Amino acid sequence: MEVIYVQADRCLGCKTCEIECRIAHTDTDTENTLFAAVSQLRPPKRRLFVEQGEKGKTPVICRHCEEAPCIVECISGSIYRDEQGFVRRKKERCIGCWSCIMACPFGVVVRDAEAHIAVKCDHCPDLDTPACVTGCPTKALQLVDVDSLPQERRKELLLKKEV
Amino acid sequence: MTQSTDRAVTEVLNNHKGGSQIQTVWDRYEAQQPQCGFGELGLCCRHCMQGPCRIDPFGEGPDRGICGATADTIVARGLARAIAGGTASHSGHALHLVHTLKKALTGQAPDYAIKDKDKLKAVAARCGIEIKDRSSKKIALELVELALAEFGDKGEPLTWAASTVTAGRIEACDKLGIVPTSIDGSIAEVMHRTTYGVDADPINILLGGLKCAVADYTACHLATDLSDIIFGTPQPVISKANLGVLREEAVNIALHGHNPLLSDIIAQVASDPALITEAKKAGASEGLNVVGICCTGNEILMRHGIPLATSSISQEVAIMTGVLDAMVVDYQCIMPAVATIAECFHTKVITTMPIAKMPGAEHIPFDEENAVKCATAIIRQGIERFRSRNPDKICIPHESSTAIAGFSAEAIIGALSKVDADDPLKPLIDNIVAGNIRGICLFAGCNTVKVPQDYNYVEMVKRLLAENVLIMATGCASSAYARHGFMTSEATTKYAGEGLAAVLTAIGEAAGLEAPLPPVLHIGSCVDNPRAVDIATAIANKLGVDISKLPVVASAPEATTEKAVAIGTWAVVGGLPTHLGVIPPVLGSKLVAETLTSTVKDLVGGYFVIEPDPNKAVKALLAIIDERRAGLGLS
């Protein structure tokens, strides 16, 4: 399964990922562009958040948990897992009870106060690569196969020991 | 993070009655976190519409912009433009004074005059103008023309630079080809060479920046000289500093910004008995209370003893006391946020300059032709506003410190001449040689939201004073030391090392103060930094060495503005090792960072020391002072 891998020490806090996320989630008939996004009557919400931590800057993103607390707590069946395994939200079924927001340990489900619905990362189902990953200029966000990551790590570890 | 180490500012931030919706500079800083790392490193270029371009500092993404500019080129261009921005500010400030003096001399601005004829003659003589048997007006008219020529295409080295520095400095600049022949031309040249497709050589761009910085020095010196001529050269004066100078029973009017052209006239008009009566009639039993903020506050503190309320970073806090009836501003360092904060109180924010307006403020144009009339109208606005003051929103802190200010170069020489009338510099030089004065440090620059207000200033000065380093301060640095009680005779007893305390006591007693001079000398506003160069030049010439050999250093531990970048750069060109406590946006280029902190030392003698930790910065500066002492053969 492909997941978004965050290398926090690469993050410069430029927030391009947040902007690309908003552009990708712009509700427009024409092409999704920055200018289309900013001229929306209700500008699109971001689904990931660049935060300042003690040690530095880091994007905080949805982990699409296997045991997703937001799915467990969603009483209307709005939050579900799609065929690819990503945790998504059916707009029309959301009743705005905010149980998902309270359940998410990462704080990445938020409220769209104007649309009265919960908003979260959908891993950009219409794109080959999520917009935030494509947009990141320093590769702090990368798409990796979660099953091959441990092997890569082991190799890195061995390399370090050899040095 | 702690917002401020100033107790008055902290008290108002914690206890103000403006409501929880109030956002100050510190809240807005937090809201900006995290800030973009490309900008922090200077790796973002927006100079053409093909951009913006960003260079990946980790080496995986693009290593050059669309035009091919590398990180080195982009960082150098950004820095040069910051210097040009600072120089433009000082150019505007200086030119405003020249125009006003010209209007005064031709009868168009009757409220201004030549107040200090001695200074006029001294400046004119220095500039090569014949002064013998000529009227002040004739001398001044010629000086004005000479000054105006500095801004245009003079075609030869600028008088206000060439006539005020050591021969060694001129030689060093000449060798590097960084002798400016026009103040405004230097700014334009930086803008030209940094625009799309012109200068791509980072070192060449930096040299252009240094040249522009020399032009900035020229503008600053010119501004200081003209301010002294029009309003008088500052002499020691005792006043108060901090928010405790605001009074519940008076109409409080704060003057904020930089140019004395506005503030000095308002300061004069505020003593008009008719206006004081009007204030009393409005219910203010103590009449009018004019206070200063930022550098125009320093100008009127030095010349009129008008108390200093606070510095630039805490300008909003002055309004949050609930007793500020009007904030009158001219230009530079005025946050647009003051108009927003004022909405939560009764304070009227009044803009006065055609180039500096602000949504939410009232604009009362200040024209030099009718200066007193304009000043009177502005004060009346404050009096009117006093009537709307809400007593439930008052929060005046008690804190205020005594501050002795007004140490112009002339005033310092004057005090020294009381020790040795024939050779005023001798006592200073003898004590530097003997080690009673280990060195001199000029503290300059701003406050920044990135450092708890005044923290670096206070931490550093305590240690430097204990190590017998004499301190001069300008701008918001002098405001910090005034507010924290470092500009008193008691501070000498409390903080100065044995040798320094003995010297300051001897000079103070000889000057008839019956007490030591303060250990931190308030030499002026930020535009007045050349006063420190004048003193350094005098010492250097007397010793027969260049400034770059003297145990004199500079520090801007809480710098913010482009003006500070320009001043810091000319301090380096002037031969001073210059500490910066805030990391400037240059670390995206190793070449530029190394040039500024190391390579430039071989070229001009001065260089930047970038160190956010105040204790480490003190150690570095002391080591430099000792190195330079050793170079002069002093122990």
The secondary-structure class of chain A comes to alpha+beta
- Unreliable residue runs of chain B: none
CATH architectural arrangement of the largest domain in chain B = 3-Layer(aba) Sandwich
Helix share bin of chain A: 25-40%
Question: What average pLDDT do the residues of chain A reach?
Answer: 92
How many strand elements of chain A?
8
What is the terminal-to-terminal distance of chain B?
42 Å
Termini gap of chain A: 32 Å
Count of helical stretches of chain B: 26
List keywords for this structure.
heterodimer; A: Alpha-Beta Plaits; two-stranded antiparallel sheet; two-stranded antiparallel ribbon; 6 helices; B: alpha/beta; Substrate Binding Domain Of Dnak, Chain:A, Domain 2; Rossmann fold; 6-stranded parallel beta sheet; 49% helix; globular
Task: Summarize the structure in words.
- The complex is a heterodimer of chains A (163) and B (635).
- Chain A has 163 residues and is of the alpha+beta class.
- Chain A has a domain at 2-61 and 121-162: Alpha-Beta Plaits (2-Layer Sandwich), CATH 3.30.70.
- Chain A has helices at 16-24, 34-38, 69-73, 99-103, 131-135, 149-162, and strands spanning 2-6, 49-52, 57-60, 79-81, 87-89, 110-112, 117-119, 141-145.
- In chain A, the strands form four sheets. A two-stranded antiparallel ribbon of chain A has the order 1-8.
- Chain B is globular and about 65 Å long.
- Chain B folds into four domains: 34-62, no CATH class; 71-231, Substrate Binding Domain Of Dnak, Chain:A, Domain 2; 243-393, 3-Layer(aba) Sandwich (Rossmann fold); 418-631, Rossmann fold.
- In chain B, α4 runs antiparallel to α6, α4 (71-105) packs across α24 (562-573) and α19 runs parallel beside α26.
- A six-stranded parallel β-sheet of chain B has the order 6-5-4-7-8-9.
- Chain B is an alpha/beta fold.
- Classes of the chains: A alpha+beta (163), B alpha/beta (635).
- The A-B interface holds A 10-15, 50-52, 56-57, 137-139 and B 33-41, 54, 56-58, 60-62.
